[in-house]
Amino acid sequence: MSATQTDGADRAMAGKTSIAQCWSCQGPVAQGQSFCPTCQAIQPPGNPEHFAQLAMEPTFDVDLAQLEQNYFRLQRTFHPDSFAAKSAKEQEFSLRHTTNLNDALKTLKSPVLRAEYLLQMRGAPAAGGPEKTVNDEGILMEAMETREALAEADSPSDVEAIVAVAQAGILDCTTDLSVAFADGDLTAASALTLRLTYLFKLDDEAAQRARILSRSA
Length: 217
Description:
Layout: H1 8-15, E1 19-21, E2 28-30, H2 50-53, H3 64-78, H4 88-109, H5 111-121, H6 137-152, H7 156-183, H8 186-216
Antiparallel strand pairs: 1-2
Helix pairs in contact: 3-4, 4-5, 5-8, 6-8, 7-8
């Protein structure tokens, strides 16, 4: 495994950090760098920030195609199969890198998890607080009315109309979140993140209701 296989994310993190020591040859390794430039041994992962780890700008407006392209390139670099003939320590580091990449991808692909992560990065309170309780009357009323409509729906077409409304709300909320983060309005971003969380839940509940009605038709 060559040190040249690390990508821009690795170098970006390395440029901002101090020098550590390679566990294998004791040579100098920039903290956060994934491979030793001297002996090319894989290094233990630290706690990389998800955006930097996948070579993405820390913004809500993520290019999902680029995100996945970066992810798969890095997965090829760190995949445990590439370290099957290496030492147990290198195999362990490979697995930990892969786990971190999977966590980063899961977070950044989801609009809700990405928004929550950005709020955390910027020191804003989590949407809804630690228990994610809802104290927004508008969200509570919207959720209650939608669930009542779902309970009363007696055909897939009834549910499709509810799904259309929920998905339109998701699109509008996502657009508003982009603006809020771009403007640095973390209060608005937190409120919108909470609303988006509930819109996705309602969309899921509608899909489940549609499946039930389809089976009983």
